[in-house]
UniProtKB/TrEMBL annotation:
Protein name stated in the entry: Cytochrome b
GO CC terms: plasma membrane
Keywords for the protein's UniProt record, in alphabetical order: Cell membrane, Electron transport, Heme, Iron, Membrane, Metal-binding, Transmembrane, Transmembrane helix, Transport
Membrane topology: Multi-pass membrane protein
Length: 180
């Protein structure tokens, strides 16, 4: 199949929705994480922003599980738009994103459990080991590092999609855009 023929193929609607839902959640979660520390330590606003971050992180976990199961069982598989090294790089970027997102959700849960947290002041997640603040700092640090790595790899992914759209003009970006 030629590159022009693949330009007219599209992913199924559920795959497209899950893709953009994942992207939106990641951007929103990263943005929320950047403002949590703006609020005073014991303020209700800090608890609420962190609670939203945690709840959306759990939602991302569910979206990821749904997305992976959908991709493995029912999602439409399209022929590769490139061959050789570009195809290998594309697959590597996708696998890296999945691995990083899974690690990020796991590290987010570990951060909540090692530090302990309050969810909207309704219930608390008790700290795993209250005396081990070093563990809590380490999991939080790794959680932040992986979040930044996701943004870097996702940024490269987006740049590649824009390259396909504006330079190669091969329709690859349209395969994942919602129908208008």
């Amino acid at each position: 199949m030629t590159r022009m023929q693949t330009a007219f193929l599209r992913y199924d609607q559920k795959t497209i929705v899950l893709h953009w839902l994942t992207a939106g959640l990641i951007v929103l979660l990263w943005g929320l994480a950047q403002i949590i520390d703006v609020f005073p330590r014991d303020s209700d606003m800090r608890v609420h922003v962190r609670s939203v971050h945690i709840v959306l992180g759990v939602a991302l976990g569910f979206v990821l599980v749904t997305r992976i199961l959908w991709r493995l069982r029912d999602g439409r598989t399209l022929p590769p738009s490139d061959t050789g090294l570009l195809n290998v790089l594309s697959h590597a970027a996708h696998y890296a994103l999945y691995a990083l997102m899974i690690a990020e959700v796991a590290l987010g849960l570990a951060t909540a459990w090692t530090r302990g947290d309050s969810i909207f002041n309704l219930f608390s997640i008790p700290p795993f080991d209250p005396a081990n603040t070093a563990l809590a700092r380490e999991t939080r640090s790794l959680h932040g590092l992986v979040a930044n790595l996701i943004l870097i790899v996702a940024g490269a992914h987006a740049a590649a999609a824009l390259f396909h759209h504006y330079v190669r003009r091969d329709g690859v970006l349209q395969r994942m855009l919602p129908e208008m």
